[in-house]
Amino acid sequence: MNWICTGVAALAALCLYLASPHQTLWKAALRRQAFLRWLSVPLLVGSVASAVETYGAWCGVCIALAGFMMALVSLPYLDAWRRKGGPHAR
């Protein structure tokens, strides 16, 4: 269950990152920015709720937020690694 909660939280972070105008992972996602921003909220809330139900209040919140923050930190690095050799400053 721990990995499921973390994965759903990472999916929420991916939705939030894809809604950013600076991302280059998936250009077609820029047309659905509002939907992706909206989708990230119920995904994160669902992740926190399922982790809280299984592990308790504070432990569940920490598990879900750890997965969310880990994805938010690593996605820009993945984006930069994917477009290495391209322009670095925008």
Automatic annotation (TrEMBL):
Q: What is this protein called?
A: DUF3325 family protein
Which keywords belong to this entry? Membrane, Transmembrane, Transmembrane helix
Organism of this sequence: Duganella flavida
Transmembrane ranges, per UniProt, are 55-78
